[in-house]
């Protein structure tokens, strides 16, 4: 493992974060329980990480969680923003990529895959 | 429903995370004529009862759930391919699950995509340390997140540049140890 390369990335990234104030704007979470994995959640998580990486979205955090009780709509992806949480169902890598490029970047939810939108208190 | 061995691996890793593990080791190894997959963690472990019932599809430790299919499915896959499955919870805690499958058995599912399976789970589990060991007879490769996080400070593993770097390293590791996707 070329740890020196990682140290260089760290220096560069920390400078960027300082310029931006250091907080994450959006959190994207993929359901990675058994049914999610069987339905293709691995490829979905991969597609999201690739798109976030390709667009160099330093203010987006990607996470994963277990099952959500939405097995019939797996793979499930949740987008957490300051005011609301958008739950997407039946996501494939193509939809996942659009969730990043259209929703996370441009604020336009991807039509046809939204299961639920919840307001966030406070 | 579960098409390749890395899907089983992803399932085992989810079990470990759900059991509250803070340290998880994953192995993908070719030992002689066998493909060996194992996951060892320091999570809550199995009681003796859970241990006995790990291969029972109607048993689950998740509250409010009726069935947990992960371990029984792996158990079944290993047996169908003429291999072995073992689950141990040592007294000091944690769990070690191992599946050993004859490399050339016609019913052994393909390995699948280790990189696409393991790395996203590792990168999106802050606070959990992982060691990945690839071994192919004499060639060995290892990834240790403690080492990586020490070099990165507070930069997350999901950061684009970091994730791309880790993908490249993992790909090198697979090449070095001679594993191919869908082998």
Strand and helix layout:
The complex is a heterodimer of chains A (122) and B (183).
Chain A: H1 3-20, E1 26-31, H2 34-39, H3 41-54, E2 60-65, E3 77-80, E4 84-88, H4 93-104, E5 114-119
Parallel strand pairs in A: 1-2
Antiparallel strand pairs in A: 1-3, 3-4, 4-5
Chain B: H1 5-18, E1 23-31, E2 34-41, H2 48-53, H3 70-80, E3 84-88, E4 95-102, H4 114-123, E5 129-136, E6 139-144, H5 145-152, H6 160-176
Parallel strand pairs in B: 1-5
Antiparallel strand pairs in B: 1-2, 2-4, 3-4, 5-6
Helix pairs in contact in B: 1-3, 1-4
Question: Tags for this entry?
Answer:
heterodimer, A: 122 residues, alpha+beta, Glutaredoxin, 5-stranded mixed β-sheet, 4 helices, globular, B: 183 residues, Heat Shock Protein 90, 6-stranded mixed β-sheet, 6 helices, 6 strands, 36% helix, 24% strand
Structural overview:
- The complex is a heterodimer of chains A (122) and B (183).
- Chain A contains four helices and five strands, in the order H-E-H-H-E-E-E-H-E.
- By secondary structure, chain A is α+β, with helices and mostly antiparallel strands.
- Chain A has one domain: Glutaredoxin (3-Layer(aba) Sandwich).
- A five-stranded mixed beta sheet of chain A has the order 2-1-3-4-5, with helices on one face.
- In chain A, helix 3 packs parallel to helix 4.
- Chain A is globular and about 45 Å long.
- Chain B is of the alpha+beta class.
- Chain B has a single domain (5-176), classed as Heat Shock Protein 90 (2-Layer Sandwich).
- In chain B, 36% of the residues lie in helices and 24% in strands.
- Chain B has six helices and six strands.
- Chain B has a six-stranded mixed beta sheet with strand order 3-4-2-1-5-6.
- The longest helix of chain B has 17 residues, at 160-176.
- The radius of gyration of chain B is 16 Å and the shape is globular.
- Chain B starts with a helix and ends in a 7-residue tail after the last helix.
- The mean pLDDT of chain B is 86.
- The A-B interface holds A 1-3, 5-7, 9-10, 12-14, 17, 30, 32-34, 37-38, 42-43, 45-46, 49, 52-58, 61-64, 66 and B 1-2, 6-7, 10-11, 14, 17-18, 68-70, 113, 116-117, 120-121, 123-125, 143-144, 147-148, 151-156, 158-165, 169.
């Amino acid at each position: 493992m070329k740890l020196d390369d990682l140290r260089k990335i760290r220096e560069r990234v920390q400078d960027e974060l300082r310029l931006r104030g250091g907080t994450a704007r959006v959190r994207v979470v993929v359901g990675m329980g058994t049914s999610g994995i069987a339905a293709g959640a691995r490829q979905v998580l991969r597609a999201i990480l690739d798109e976030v990486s390709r667009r160099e979205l330093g203010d987006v955090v990607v996470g994963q969680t277990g099952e959500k009780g939405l097995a019939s709509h797996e793979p499930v992806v949740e987008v957490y923003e300051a005011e609301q949480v958008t739950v997407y169902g039946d996501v494939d890598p193509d939809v996942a990529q659009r969730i990043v490029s259209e929703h996370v970047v441009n604020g336009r939810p991807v039509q046809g895959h939204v299961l639920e939108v919840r307001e966030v208190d406070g | 429903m579960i098409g390749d061995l890395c899907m089983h691996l992803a399932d085992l890793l989810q079990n470990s995370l759900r059991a509250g593990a803070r340290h998880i080791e994953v192995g993908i190894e070719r030992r002689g004529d066998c493909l060996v997959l194992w996951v060892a963690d320091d999570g809550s472990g199995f009681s003796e009862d859970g241990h006995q019932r790990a291969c029972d599809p109607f048993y689950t430790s998740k509250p409010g759930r009726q069935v947990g299919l992960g371990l029984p499915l792996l158990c079944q896959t290993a047996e169908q391919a003429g291999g072995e499955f073992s689950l141990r919870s040592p007294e000091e805690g944690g769990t070690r699950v191992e599946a050993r499958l004859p490399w050339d058995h016609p019913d052994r599912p393909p390995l699948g995509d280790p990189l696409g399976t393991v790395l996203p789970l590792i990168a999106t589990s802050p606070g959990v340390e992982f060691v990945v060991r690839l071994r192919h007879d004499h060639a060995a490769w290892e990834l240790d997140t403690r080492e990586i996080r020490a070099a990165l400070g507070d930069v997350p593993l999901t950061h684009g540049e970091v994730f791309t770097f880790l993908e490249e390293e993992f790909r090198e590791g697979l090449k070095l140890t001679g594993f191919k996707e869908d082998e």
